[in-house]
Amino acid sequence: MYVGTQVAPRNVSDLEVWAQLGVNNICADPFEEDKDGNYNSINPHKWTSEILEKHIELLDKKGLTLDMVQIPLSSRPLEESGSPNIMLGKSPERDREIESIQNILSLCSKVGIPAVKYNMNIIGIPRSEQERGRGGSLNSTFRWEKIDKNADPGIAGILDVDTNWERIDYFLEKIVPVAEEFKVRLACHPHDPYTPDGYKGVTRVLGTVDGLKKFISLHESPYHGLNFCQGTVSEMLDDPGKEIFEVIRYFGERKKIFNVHFRNILGKKLDFMEVFPDEGSIDMIEALKTYKEVGYEYMLMPDHVPSISGVNNSGVAFAYCYGYITAGLQSIGHHRNVPWVRKS
Description:
Elements lengths: L1 E4 L6 H9 L4 E3 L3 E3 L5 E3 L7 H13 L3 E6 L14 H4 L4 H19 L3 E5 L8 E5 L5 E6 L17 H22 L2 E5 L19 H9 L6 E6 H5 L5 H14 L3 E5 L2 E5 L2 E5 L8 H10 L5 E3 L11 H19 L13
Parallel strand pairs: 1-2, 1-14, 2-5, 5-6, 6-9, 9-10, 10-11, 11-14
Antiparallel strand pairs: 3-4, 7-8, 8-13, 12-13
Helix pairs in contact: 2-4, 4-5, 8-9
């Protein structure tokens, strides 16, 4: 296992900084450069092998390896999704979206991209108001007592549990065999955060550990697993500081963890703040030891960070997390290709 990132690069400097920080493995979709040198992502439904090959070549020149890309099923609400009809269950539109994703898997295999990540989201990532954290940082929170319990459903309307599972199963039935054929790992992100049944008309079936266990059992395959967001899974638990390690073991021992969002929270289910890795409810070094114990072998990356002061505040906050992960791996004696201690 090794440090990675999924931050969308803003320009060439971001690529250079990651290489300089030793973050050599990334998840990043292809982009176009505008006249000012800024990067703008290319719609995944429009990817070609030439676009992906050019992307990989650019990253390689900067000392970066493309471990993963995001297929057009994001964490955004369905209203903003690149493939809304899959979770709306609307045919034949969903079949066209699935066919496009099947083609993306074929392209990834052709150019050597080993994994993709995705979400089966409907209502996005609900949060309450930001709160002040360490040193006055602004931190994302979810306080159920502050949430509007009567918020209107989105475009999916009121969706019962069985229908939700049917739509997920329909997608997996058509996608998992293609992933197997092309040997591309499918890493699905849990629903962030857990919400009580019926919130915004939806029961978030991938918002519980039991739901994730059911998910990986559907169309079982070594290419069907999780983008294991440790922060999100911690948000499902009553006592995450004690419970998270057994959850890591459950999915890790079954080789169902294909990527890790290495994030800490302060709090528990329905009442938490997102924090830096060294100040939350989870012993993150113990978590690293657990990933090592189960033989996890892919990227560890921050997904969200508190908003801090200063210039390039997001880049600085993420850099802190990259350094924390790197130091944590050294502290547990984890092997890496570049020696931790060099003579010259």
